[in-house]
Amino acid sequence: MEDRGMLGGAHPAAKLILLIILALVGLFVVMILGLLVAIPFFGQEITGIILQGEGLDLSENLNFSRYFQTLSHIGLFVVPSVVFAFLVGRRPFLYLKASHKPFWVSLGISILIMIAALPLVNFLMEINLKLSLPVWMSGLEEWMRTAEENAEVVTRMFLEVTSYKALLFNIFMIAVIPAIGEEFIFRGIVLRLFRQWTGSAHAAVWISALLFSAMHMQFFGFLPRLFLGLVLGYMLVWSRNIWVPVVAHFFNNAAAVIFYFMHHNGYINIDIEEVGMGAGSVYYVLTSVVMLAVLSWFFLNFEKGRQKRLSFD
User: Fold this and answer.
1) Is 176 exposed, middle or buried (0-12, 13-18, 19+ CB in 10 A)?
2) Residue 53 and residue 36: Cα distance in Å, rounded?
3) CA distances from 217 to 148, 221, 272 (A)
4) Domain check: are 191 and 74 in the same one?
5) pLDDT per position as a tens digit, 23-43
6) CA distance 259 to 212
7) Which residue segment(s) compose the domain that 298 sits in?
8) Tell me, what's the pLDDT at 54?
9) Residue 211 and residue 213: Cα distance in Å, rounded?
């Protein structure tokens, strides 16, 4: 489908600039409105601290921090993607390839792909953690490691809950909102724009995956996120339906949250973050690679056959 909105004829570079502007504006507007709404629930003192740009003790205001995190994702990803799609495509969900229900077979294979990818993703994480910058950039490396350690502390504070109510909110905050927002932005828009710009689906998938990984601002998790970005990108290209990578993204994040909850509370002894790491990991990784190849082949051929059948209808 051609871009038929009021800004549909703009160059992809101009559209990217527009997307960045909308993301910044969306973040600002949603945060301000969200903070005003929060006053009756969290008190004027906490919201006042945020509005004044002062630091907030995360451990003492964990629920507000969860709320704040959710707002930021909605403002930075969900709202701008829909507004952008309306301005460029006029029919947002059609532009984002979200207007049709995905096939259950596609969803099932996409989830199996995420499961099969786990050992390889963890292996890439292990490699990434061992990477070092040149000596002359040691200061930058130290800063990046400190920043990631701080981010890890915050993440664990969010995840280390004991109630199912808190678990459900974590799934909403870490799986539902990011899966929709990030997929709409990076696969629904960024990938599409670079495909128009370069004329190559492969180049678009790689560029969008690079930007997706870089956006997280975590150098020592760059490789596994890049790989996941590639997997999600090809899911969209092959299925032509944004809900396929959205569901796969959701499953990946939700599974991590649920397994962390179960491990942290002693329900299970398996830490899925360690599968594919350490001694004997080569067997898990090789199995992961083989399974990914097989599942990707099934996925691609199912989608080719389905789209071929549609062309004859």
Assistant:
1) middle
2) 15
3) 9, 9, 23
4) no
5) 999 999 998 898 888 777 776
6) 24
7) 99-312
8) 52
9) 5
DSSP letter for each residue of 223-256: HHHHHHHHHHHHHHHHH--THHHHHHHHHHHHHH
Contact 257, 167 (CB under 8 A): yes
Residues 110 and 42 in one domain: no
Q: Residue 6 is encoded by which pair of tokens?
A: 């009021």
**CA–CA dist 234, 211 (Å, integer):** 15
Q: How many CA atoms lie within 13 A of 119 on its CB side?
A: 18
Q: Is 281 left (phi over 0), alpha (psi -120 to 50) or beta?
A: alpha
Question: Quick one: which of 171, 302, 301, 307 has its CA closest to 249?
Answer: 171
- Residue 180 confidence class, pLDDT cut points 50, 70, 90: very high
**Residue 7: both structure tokens together:** 């800004």
Are residues 3 and 106 located together in one domain of the fold? no
Residues near 167 by beta carbon (within 8 Å), at least 6 away in sequence: 161, 257, 258, 261
What is the reported pLDDT for 245? Answer: 98
**Could you tell me which residues come within 8 angstroms of residue 191 by beta carbon, excluding any fewer than 6 positions away?**
204, 205, 207, 208, 233, 236, 237
Q: How many CA atoms lie within 13 A of 77 on its CB side?
A: 23
C-alpha dist (Å) from residue 238 to 146, 189, 242: 39, 16, 10
Domain boundary among 73, 95, 117: 95
Token code pair at residue 289? 């690679």
Is the pLDDT score of 58 beyond 70? no
Residue 127 sits in the same domain as residue 188: yes
Task: Enter the DSSP assignment of 6.
Answer: T
Please check whether residues 81 and 104 belong to one and the same domain. no
283 burial class (0-12, 13-18, 19+ CB within 10 angstroms)?
exposed
